[in-house]
Design brief:
The protein has helices at 3-22, 31-36, 50-76, 78-82, 89-101, 114-121, 130-145, 160-179, 198-234. By secondary structure, it is mainly α. Helix 3 runs antiparallel to helix 7 (130-145) and helix 7 runs antiparallel to helix 8. The chain has one domain.
Length: 241
């Protein structure tokens, strides 16, 4: 069996593993469940490698985790969404989602994005919608680390170091969320006080997805070099029929 076929099987296995990992399943899937969970193939998927598809799924699920955190934080800190001037919490959430996915600036952040916005959103000088700013900053940081895209195709490239750094930034942001206090010693945002682990779960899922993608990217580039070295070592000619 040729190296390309072996690599293809390896990519398929990794893809299936990631689908199971990233899907957010609460229970263990049996064989019948896996077979029945089919979806119509999108023509755009033909322009994606296994890793492109994995990265696209990871980004979609990471953004969904952020949106769940957004809803949780708005529920615990209703005064924050009211600072937006919008009529409901739902409208405020939709506005943040649009800003993240359409790369639109947030007025209260003064043009800041990703890590600059993250530091400012949890700083003492920020007086706007702190929940929206915090989630927007994380979302823009994720997208920036992936080259400014939310879907990935054969012509796209990844920087594994940036994706690794994004995972570490999320860990730091989760810590900051629980530790930052105002001048009176009160939390800047109410989140996981009282042993609520749902916040840690969502942060943990995002970190795990990013770390898995980092490892897959590093292995792909390592195998590319190994395959090239093997071709030189054994002087393998390419098939012509």
């Amino acid at each position: 069996m040729g190296a390309k076929v072996i690599d293809g099987y390896r990519g398929l296995v990794l893809g299936l593993a990631l689908l199971l990992t990233l899907g957010g399943c609460t229970g263990r899937l049996d064989h019948a469940s896996i077979i029945n969970k089919t979806a119509e193939l999108n023509p755009r998927e033909l322009l994606q490698s296994d890793v492109d598809r994995m990265a696209t799924l990871a980004m979609r699920n990471n953004l969904n985790s952020l949106y769940r955190l957004l809803d949780k934080l708005y529920q615990r800190n209703p005064k924050e969404w009211r600072k937006t001037g919008l009529a409901s919490r739902s409208e405020a959430e939709q506005a943040i989602q649009r800003a993240i996915e359409n790369n639109q600036p947030m007025p209260h952040l003064g043009g800041r994005r990703d890590v600059a916005a993250l530091s400012y959103a949890l700083g003492p000088d920020f007086h706007g919608d702190r929940v929206g700013a915090f989630i927007y900053a994380l979302g823009s940081m994720l997208i920036t680390a992936h080259g400014g895209r939310t879907e990935f195709y054969l012509t796209d490239s990844f920087n594994a170091e940036f994706i690794h750094n994004a995972a570490r930034n999320i860990e730091k942001a989760a810590w900051m969320l629980g530790q930052r206090r105002d001048e009176q010693g009160r939390p800047l945002l109410l989140s996981n006080e009282g042993g609520n682990l749902s916040y840690a779960v969502e942060f943990g899922k995002m970190v795990a997805r990013l770390d898995l993608l980092t490892h897959v990217l590093e292995e792909r580039y390592r195998r590319m070099g190994a395959n090239y070295a093997q071709s030189l070592l054994f002087i393998n000619f390419l098939p012509v029929q």
